[in-house]
Amino acid sequence: MKQLLLFSLFISFSISIYSQQGPPPPCGITSVYICDDNDDGFKELNLRGLFPFTSFCAASQGEVETDYHTISYYETQDDMNNETNAIINPEAYTNISNPQVIYFRANAINSGGNFESLTSYDDFVEIKRLSTTISPLEVCDDLSDGDDTNGYAIFDLTQIGVSIFCGSVPSNYSVSYYKDKAQTDLIVNPTAYYSNTQTIHARVEYLDTGYVETTSFELIVWIPPTMNSVSSVLVCDDDSDGFIEFDLTNKDSEILNGQVGSEVLYYEDSSFTNPIDKNTLYQNITNPQTIYVRVENSFGCFDTGEFSISVLPIPQINQPTPLEVCDDISGDGVETFDLNSKNTEIIGTQTGVSISYYSTLFDAEVDINPLPSSFTNYANPLTIYVRVQNDPTGCFAITTLDLYVKDCSNSGVIEVNAFYDEDTNGTFENDENLFVNGLFTYEMNNDGIQYVVSSSTGSFEIISDDDNNTYDISYSLYDEYLDCYNITTDLYEDVSATNGNLVTYNFPITKVQDCGDIAIYLVSYVPPRPGFDYVNYLVIKNKGLETVASGSVEFVHDPLVTFNNVTYIDAGNSVVNTATGFTLDFINLAPNQQETVLINMNVPVPTSLGALLTNTATYSVTDLSAENNTSVLSETVIGSYDPNDIAESHGPEIIHSDFEATDYLYYTVRFQNVGTADAINVSIDNTLDSRLDKSTIQMLLSSHANVFTRVDSQLNWKFDNIHLPSEDMDEPNSHGYVYYKIKPLTGYSVGDIIPNTAEIYFDFNPAVVTNTFQTEFVTTLSNEKISDSEFVLFPNPANNLVELKFNKYSSNSIETRIYNIQGKMILSNKNQLQNKAVQLNVSSLKSGLYFLKVNDGVNEFTRKLMVK
Predict the structure, then answer these.
(1) What is the 3-state secondary structure (H, E, C) of 152-206?
(2) Who has the most CB within 10 Å: 333, 412, 529, 732?
(3) CA distances from 1 to 135, 224, 261, 579 (A)
């Protein structure tokens, strides 16, 4: 409704009266409303016409206007008292302010000639604007009110009176309402007038003088929009995290069903507050989730409704290793493959899913032309497509399977397997699983060269090019599993395979006692860079063979990074964000299975190059191996990077006194195919430094299936038939890594530096040589500087006082806060600089790693602090 402007003219009067009977009482003048023609608050007024004698004098006292001299009007009280500077033309006076006080004076005519008294009466008159242009009175038709016709509604016409007077109607005014301009058809009950859209005429009368104004206004009945019923949204998850982004505006046309002139608004709550921004894709916050809808026209009439969103899980797919068969005597490279032999490897223990194989990606996507289980290839090698579908929902996932027909005519193949012999009969049966918690060792022709092999699948092959070659093959358990399992047969001697033949040797593993073991690993594909996203991969692996595991893992990120979210969460598992990261609750993790989640973070632009970021993941339940229940990843912030590199999780410096004899170094070798085609095979060579204990090496994790072999200090990983896509083909899947642990030899001392370099081979291309990562044992961590503020932190580690020395600084106040590794603030101080330095007392802190935040009023920086 249009807001009306007011102006007020306040008028006081002083009257000199000569009367034997004394002056009359004060007059008590009431407000007068007049029209303002141009809404500027000023108007030419006839003061004599507005306020004649009879309007303010008490006629009941017997006086008449002729008993007084002519009234004089003044702009100030002094002029009135002194009878000076009277308003010259009161019949045509324009007010000079709004509101304004006008003083006036009337002297009595003393017919008796006797002066008795002179009395002043002060009062005022408000002159207010009467609005003659009235905004329409608009209401929405309540379509559910039970009347027979739409377009009618009940109006309270008296609201217009409030609009006319910019407030309540004064008692000395009356307002009446008519259906016609001639004002003959009076509306008897204006507070509940049932009407459609029409014009109403109003009559405003000033009861004191009979002054009348007329105006008109419109009644408008708005027909509300109606919301059509809306179907539920069912969306297949694209990354197994239960959340997905989609365009809500896709529902607009279904909701409006052809209606025009209305807007569709979406809300997360039934109170319809804070509409969802439709200019961006919306991501559900729960699964399933109810979206509340309000359809609103331009006046604000509305209808409401709701619909649900359900993000349906897709099945989980394990990338299968290639399916290989030996070529027959024809040598034509065409053989028959049993595709169903890969089913268990691909879907694991999932239920309610179906698996099919296809020749093309299109066939797999639209589910046409599935291949028979007994399939004969038409090319060698050949890539086919696997579709795994969740039968109740129809959601599916697709992966590839490589088929190879091998020429086995000139070589003998010795297949070696370690398997969990669940029924203890010594035979490797189809429903039994391979065993990965140990090492193969073999020696050829008793030449004294030991080949130590760790297979990510529990199986590997020895290719023998000479019928006369013999091999001694053994298997050993990792130390932590010696009390849990037993190797029924741990050695085969003088094994051979004649050309063109395949022989198999199995190492049966039987259970001694149940040993649950959950291992936690943190790795990353790309090191942190300011301004870029930084992704860590949290791997939770059930290394036990008997028990389905459930539990909780806490992740704490470095305070320097911004935590975004966690993706690729298995169905049924849940994540709860915390102030310093998140807690992941996993359920039903099958034996020898793992879950990998992506932790998405961002490194803010102010982060200094060279800063060390440390993230930690912890599984708090005591199990077989406490050593693998915590994973710490420290990486140096860099400006640019080579995607093929090697790094150690402690960072470049390790405090000598904190590193115990039982501690390991954790190395990650990362690689990426930056070529123009997929890499069929990838191989990594890594020569151990003489200060590393080669006997303690243990493979922990890898991005793809591989066979790891150690010969003395020379390490090699073979990713045969990996088909690693190039960066421009599929950037997210063009990366890979291996992750292993190893101990340094005893006797390392302060100042010792252990270097490590790897060479990566993509097919037959020359080696890509990584950086040389150097691990130095130190007494204290290097002094760290913030380039913006230029301060030095010393000593570090500390046990009493820590000094922050600023080389150049203009501010006098520094705020410092100390957090523990869980992100809880332990100490907070406002510090005044003394000789460009601040001292912190950390003697009350327990030994360990802390994070020191320094705020200079402009920027905030974080550094690690060790307390002894």
Answers:
(1) CEEECCHHHHHHHHCCCCCCCEEEEEECCCCCCCECCCHHHEEECCEEEEEEEEE
(2) 412
(3) 6, 20, 21, 48
**Integer Rg of the chain from CA:** 45
Buried b (16+ CB within 10 A) or exposed e, 216-246: ebebbbbebbebeebeebebebeebbbbbee
Q: Which two tokens stand for residue 498?
A: 């004649």
CA distance 760 to 468: 33
pLDDT of residue 495: 94
Q: E strand or H helix at 344, and its extent?
A: helix 343-347
CA–CA distance from 533 to each of 437, 521, 726 (Å)?
34, 20, 21
Residue 751 pLDDT greater than 70, yes or no:
yes
What average pLDDT score do residues 273-283 get? Answer: 88
In b/e form, how buried is each residue of 266-291, taking b as 16+ CB within 10 angstroms? bbbeeebeeeeeeeeebebeebebeb
**In the structure, what pLDDT confidence band is assigned to residue 36 with cuts at 50, 70 and 90?**
low
CB atoms within 10 A of CB 190: 19
Residue length of the chain: 868
Rounded Cα–Cα distance for residues 758 and 773 (Å):
10
Contact, 628 vs 594, CB < 8 A?
Answer: no
Instruction: Tell me the longest C-alpha to C-alpha distance in the chain.
Output: 159
- 753 with 774: CB under 8 angstroms? yes
Question: What's the gap between Cα 355 and its chain centre?
Answer: 34
**Cα–Cα distances in Å, from 216 out to 6, 163, 827?**
20, 12, 71
Contact residues for 181 (Cβ-Cβ < 8 A; gap 6+): 201, 216
Secondary structure class of 724 (helix, strand, coil): strand
What single letter denotes the amino acid at residue 274? N
Quick check: 11 pLDDT over 60? no
Confidence at 102, pLDDT banded by 50, 70, 90 = confident
Rounded to the nearest 10°, the torsion over CA 386, 390, 396, 400 is: -20
Single pTM value for the model = 0.51
Q: How far apart (Å, rounded) are the C-alpha atoms in residues 267 and 144?
A: 24
Positive or negative: CA dihedral 495, 498, 499, 502: negative
CB atoms within 10 A of CB 115: 10
Q: In which residue are the tokens 């800063």 written?
A: 611
Residue 56 in tokens: 């303010």
- Residues 153-206: tens digit of each pLDDT: 889 998 887 777 666 777 878 889 999 988 899 999 998 898 888 999 988 887
Residue 251: what are its φ and ψ, rounded to 5°?
-90, -10
Residue 573: pLDDT band with limits 50, 70, 90: confident
Task: Identify which of 292, 142, 288, 273 has the alpha carbon closest to the alpha carbon of residue 230.
Answer: 292
